[in-house]
Write a structure and sequence with these properties.
heterodimer, A: alpha/beta, Rossmann fold, 6-stranded mixed β-sheet, 34% helix, 26% strand, B: 222 residues, mainly alpha, 83% helix
């Protein structure tokens, strides 16, 4: 069977800075992969390449047989939650979703927007401009934007950053619902506690390289953190 | 055209709500035209002779201000990335931004036109057809170039300086053509000559727009 998402020899250079140094990646449909790594490891760049936002210097990404970057269809299959919300401060929550619905060619975008507002618990605030939203609410609306066109591949870049404990928990619950076996999730995060809830597989990166790939250890609480420390420090602590 | 229309409508909605761009451009241009009108001796014919040039220089600088404001909205919260991720040809993003910027320019120019007539002693209806053909075609050329260069400089430090430095020299054909058409329209010059300049402006528009459509998807890639 064809691999859902395949990256081959991805290299990304910004001048003399090597953000990615030969990344090979295989992700099956319905799988959840968590990317871990220190700041500057290349996680965001990798997600940017997978989203079609960043053009790799070398290598290619193939999503369901289509080479990403050249294929509009492949972009239609991808939902990307970036560091920034990608939402317009001057528009209301509903107007933002309606705009992205039209931009993405979503059929019945009004109905779909309302459905997403309910799903993310923002229905009561639908007619408020997002300039007045808290970080947590803006992040929930971001995920609604990301899911609006019902993508098969969902890329989440630091989805918990700036969220308080309560918002983070609510957000984790929303993300767990996305793990329905139909969608493929790739999440870059620093939040070790959330990893066990979010992923089937973990990939640890540093310096633009993959240092470890494997299933998420669930032997005991803190197993992920132990694995991370061991991989990043090379066993020297 | 789906994505282009969505972007155009979104920009209009944001502008109708804030009226930030049109008001800023109108006030800026009004001030420039007023200051220029008082810059020569009372009773002198100089302001009237220089009026078409002053008008187009005002349009160009106000247009740069407008481009900056339009793209500021896209930079906020990384919205420009959101546009580029859309499953459409990126040319459509370019067309959408061109349409909305053009609309903002035309609205503020329509407000400014009678004020210009009063300040510089021209009838606002004399030669209006030819004058506005020149303004619209000049705007199209300006916007076609301006949107590409604004996208290039969107994340650049010192973009307020870099954009005019890149854009103004390239806009010289628009400036020359626009000034000639306005001069001929307002002073009752030869219609045939005015139409020749209008034709040249249209040719520039086609070149700039085709170039813009081809270059935009390339320059926005990270």
């Amino acid at each position: 069977m064809e691999t859902f998402l395949k990256a081959e020899g991805l290299v990304k250079r910004y001048g003399h800075i090597h953000a990615l140094r030969g990344i090979d990646l295989h992700v099956e449909g319905g799988e959840s992969l968590v990317l871990l790594g220190p700041n500057g490891a290349g996680k965001s760049t990798l997600l940017g390449v997978l989203a079609g936002r960043v053009r790799p210097t070398e290598g290619k990404v193939i999503l369901q047989g289509e080479i990403l970057g050249k294929s509009i269809q492949a972009r239609n299959q991808t939902g990307y939650l970036a560091h920034s919300s990608l939402l317009y401060q001057g528009l209301t929550a509903r107007e933002n979703l309606l705009f992205y619905g039209k931009l993405y060619g979503v059929k019945d975008s009004a109905e779909r927007s309302d459905e997403m507002l309910h799903f993310m618990g923002l229905w009561e605030r639908r007619d408020d401009r997002i300039g007045g939203f808290s970080r947590g609410m803006e992040q929930r609306l971001s995920i609604a934007r990301c899911l609006l066109h019902d993508p098969q591949l969902i890329l989440l870049d630091e989805p918990f950053s700036g969220l308080d404990y309560q918002s983070s928990r609510a957000f984790t619950q929303a993300l767990k619902q996305l793990r329905d076996g139909r969608r493929t999730l790739i999440v870059a995060t620093h939040d070790m506690a959330a990893v066990e809830n979010l992923g089937d597989r973990v990939m640890i990166m540093n310096g633009g390289r993959i240092l470890h790939q494997g299933t998420i250890p669930v032997d005991s609480p803190g197993s992920v953190k132990d694995l991370y420390t061991k991989v990043i420090t090379g066993g020297k602590q | 055209m789906r994505a282009a229309i969505a972007i155009f409508r979104k920009d209009l909605l944001l502008e109708m709500r804030g009226k930030e761009i049109v008001v800023t451009l109108t006030v800026f241009s009004f001030l420039v035209l007023t200051v220029f009108s008082f810059s020569t001796e009372p009773g002198s014919s100089a302001p009237r002779e220089m009026a078409p040039g002053i008008l187009w220089i005002t349009f160009l600088f106000a247009g740069i201000l407008g481009l900056g404001r339009t793209f500021d909205r896209e930079r906020e919260n990384g919205c420009f990335t959101g546009l580029l991720l859309a499953p459409c040809d990126r040319m459509e993003v370019y067309w959408g931004k061109c349409l909305s910027t053009l609309a903002f320019l035309l609205v503020f120019q329509a407000i400014l036109w009678p004020i210009f007539g009063v300040l510089y002693g021209y009838s606002p209806v004399k030669g209006i057809g030819i004058a506005w053909a020149g303004i619209i075609l000049g705007d199209i050329g300006f916007v076609a170039l301006g949107v590409v260069l604004s996208a290039v400089t969107i994340h650049a430090r010192g973009r307020e300086i870099i954009l005019p430095l890149l854009l103004l020299p390239l806009c010289l054909p628009v400036l020359v053509g626009g000034v000639r058409v306005i001069t001929l329209a307002l002073d009752g010059g030869s219609t045939a000559e005015a139409l020749t300049w209008i034709g040249r402006l249209a040719a520039f528009d086609v070149i700039f727009f085709v170039l813009g459509s081809v270059l935009f998807p390339l320059v926005v890639e990270e």
